[in-house]
Amino acid sequence: MTQSTAWDHPEPLAVGSAPVPAYGSGSLADLLPTIAAGMGVPGTTAAIAELTPADRACVFLVDGLGWQQVREHPEYAPFLTSLLDSSRGGTGRPITAGYPATTATSLASVGTGLPPGAHGLPGYTVRDPRTGDLMNQLRWQPYTDPHAWQPYPTIFQLAQRAGVHAAQVSSPTFANTPLTKVALSGGTFLGRLSGEERMDVAADQLAAGDRALVYTYYSELDGAGHRYGVDSDTWRGQLMHVDRLVQRLAERLPQRSVLYVTADHGMIDVPFDERHRIDFDEDWELRAGVALLGGEGRARHVYAVPGAADDVLTCWREVLGEQFWVASRDEAIDAGWFGPRIDDRVYARIGDVVAAARDDVLLIASEREPKESLMVGNHGSMTPAEQLVPLLEVRS
Question: From CA 357, how far away is CA 323, in angstroms rounded?
Fold first, then answer.
């Protein structure tokens, strides 16, 4: 997988210096199509060349488990660490989440096998061009028709049509959410409350067909990171639990199976001071000409009042240009931030101005987003800590 040298040499803050995700060769959007292609599912393509086909495959997505965070905590994740050790047969490697590195966007990329510019969930909150309102794509508020918003079939649906046993094992809370419908539907949804139950059911589902594609999910690591930070004992305790869950599932794999452990994004802790947390609601320069502020603290979509887009872009570059990559909509699209193509229905969902954090900074909105503004751990941008996620493999 080719990685942009901007991760190693990020000093120039021109739009083109941002380390664009590896769409088409090593991103989350490439994982399920590669797995399904190995099972002979029509309409899928093997984009990640290193993956060997298997009859039965399970993807365990751990919310918030960044590649860097795994590598920095070997004592808390011995089993995961063993999957990185080539001397012990480990073949672990990083892939890129996609931009922005946030849950709704990444889950849609995983499930559809498409980058954000195609599936159409290009941020935490984005403007609905039909209504002009900000839409939260994680909570799906305000409600809009899910299949009009994201019309493409999921890889699970394609697999089911091809005779592959498809299943998702997750919290019962997610059984009928719009995000599940547009990103992860197809086959059987099995809700289980505990992580241990999910691991056992996922193993059972792998054995339920000669060909099987199973997805399972764990969210509590991400929650601990947001509330307490990735440098907290609470987060490290959750990492230890994740490590045990992965080992539990690995030890229960039926024959001819592969387990892939990955994540939707990594995370970075942001200090609580004015230099690191810039408050949009208190900054008249940044507010000037802005009709709506979307996205999240490290990956902003900025929607200008009519006729003000150029002025907003100029101002945001002057104020934030040393800490953020700041691009116009067309510049971000041309640079490939959202993937190699942008569907017409998605174009206006992207901000007139797009701002991605380079440093350990956050653009909060203390009045508009009081809860989000108080989070310790954050994500969304294209730094290695957020963008690189593990692809760890266990075979039976």
Answer: 6
Q: Are residues 88 and 143 in the same domain?
A: yes
Q: Residue 7 pLDDT > 60, yes or no?
A: no
Which of 54, 25, 23 is CA-nearest to residue 40? 54
- Whether residues 389 and 352 share a domain: the answer is no
Enter the pTM of the model.
0.94
301 has pLDDT over 70: yes
**Using CA atoms, how far apart are residues 226 and 372, in angstroms rounded to an integer?**
9
Q: How large is the greatest C-alpha to C-alpha distance in the chain, in angstroms?
A: 61
Q: Which amino acid is at 331?
A: E
CA-based angle 20:21:25, to the nearest 5? 125
Decide: residue 204, CB within 10 A, 0-12 exposed, 13-18 middle, 19+ buried.
Answer: middle
Q: How high is the mean pLDDT of the chain?
A: 94
Tell me: do 165 and 20 sit in the same domain.
yes
Question: What SS3 state is found at 89?
Answer: coil
C-alpha to C-alpha distance for 35 and 19, rounded to whole angstroms: 26
Alpha helices in the chain (DSSP H): 31-38, 67-71, 78-82, 103-112, 116-119, 146-149, 155-161, 178-183, 195-206, 220-228, 233-251, 284-287, 309-320, 329-334, 344-347, 384-387
Domain ranges, residue 365: 277-378
Count of structural domains, the chain: 2
| Structure tokens given for 128 | 């609905």
What are the pLDDT digits (tens) for 128-169?
Answer: 999 999 999 999 999 999 999 999 999 999 999 999 999 999
Does pLDDT of 360 surpass 90?
yes
